[in-house]
Amino acid sequence: MAIKEFCYLIYTKARLNVKAENSLNKLSYAWLLIEPLLFMGVYYIVFGILLHSKTDNFVIYLLTGLVPWLWFNKSINRSSMSIVAGKPISSQVPISKSFFVLVSCTQEFIRQTIAIAMLLITVVGFGYLPNKSWLWLPIVILLQFIFTIGCSLLLAFIVTYIRDVHLMLSSCTRILMYVSGIIYPISKVPETYQWVFDINPIANMIILYRQILIEQVSPSTYSLIYLLISAVSLIALSIALYISKDQSMTREVMR
Questions:
Q1: Would you state the pLDDT for residue 1?
Q2: Start-to-end C-alpha separation, the chain
Q3: In a domain? residue 23
Q4: Who has greater pLDDT, 176 or 91?
Q5: 74 lies in a domain?
Q6: N or C: which end of the chain has fewer CB within 10 A?
Q7: Could you tell me which residues come within 8 angstroms of residue 86 by beta carbon, excluding any fewer than 6 positions away?
Q8: What is the DSSP letter of 99?
Q9: Which UniProt keywords apply (predicted)?
Q10: 231 domain residue, yes or no
Q11: What CA–CA distances, in Å, run from 89 to 10, 94, 96, 219?
């Protein structure tokens, strides 16, 4: 199958899945707007009011962290079991295992465009008007999409062999959120522990969004390059694993 046809098949399947979900869920896209606002309200009370760790315009600070995070978190959770869940199809049609992961990631991206649009409207509503730094936004969104695919491919590969990893995912992502500076300013972290954020791709990704939307400056070269290298490395590793372990993965899925 040609790459163009493969990509079209992924997009078509993802779009149909989104339509099917929306027909079953009454809130459908509305929940994509409600969820980050609910999280923002909780974290604003806990970190902004009770713990006094808020920054200026803490609402926007939280949203610029939560919207990208929820996109990433939902994507990897949805994708982690996608290969196993795709058994009825893969048992009948010879198709790459990566297809199921890519469909899941694309499906979540289509859904999250509503939340991203809400974020941009809210940012403008708080007085952060678009400027030339916004030209970087599509690049950062693309980098996040590629990075998310890389993480999802690797995670789905692991879950194919060790199903229990999927059960641990919720706890692991919660820990990851707390060490990524999503709900508190990284500047308040002691200098001794700053290296944790420097090597964390998620933290660098959130920094990029905040530099563009809040600080309204060109994004950090370090964060851009680090996120790009992380994304490409994960994709390359996943491709190597999927090619070398294709037959082994098939046996694991079918068992």
A1: 64
A2: 27
A3: no
A4: 176
A5: yes
A6: C
A7: 97, 99, 100, 253
A8: H
A9: Cell inner membrane, Cell membrane, Membrane, Transmembrane, Transmembrane helix, Transport
A10: yes
A11: 14, 9, 11, 42
Transcribe 6-59 into DSSP letters. Answer: HHHHHHHHHHHHHHHHHHH-SSTHHHHHHHHHHHHHHHIIIIIIIS----TTHH
- Specify whether the CB–CB gap between 168 and 190 falls below 8 A: no
Q: Domain for residue 78, yes or no? A: yes
Domain count, the chain: 1
CA–CA separation, 237 and 233 (whole Å): 6
CB 177 within 8 A of CB 31: no
Coil, helix or strand for 109? Answer: helix
3-state DSSP assignment of residue 182:
coil
Give residue 54's pLDDT. Answer: 63
C-alpha span between 119 and 108 (Å, rounded): 16
**Structural domain harbouring 206:** 3-18+28-254
- Rounded to whole angstroms, how far apart are CA atoms 108 and 146? 13
The CB density around residue 98, as the number of other CB atoms within 10 Å, is 21
In the predicted model, is pLDDT for residue 87 greater than 90? Answer: no
Residue 220, classed as helix, strand or coil, is coil
Model confidence at 50: pLDDT above 70: no
Q: How far is Cα 165 from Cα 168, in angstroms, rounded to an integer?
A: 5
Distance separating alpha carbons of residues 242 and 165, to the nearest angstrom? 18
User: Is 181 within 8 Å of 188 (Cβ atoms)?
Assistant: no
Query: d(Cα 227, Cα 232) in Å, to the nearest integer?
Result: 9
Distance (Å, rounded) from C-alpha 32 to C-alpha 113?
9
Across the range 80-108, mean pLDDT stands at 90
Residue 146: per-residue pLDDT: 97
> Which residue is it, tokens 């590793």?
237
Give dist(CA 211, CA 218) in Å, integer: 7
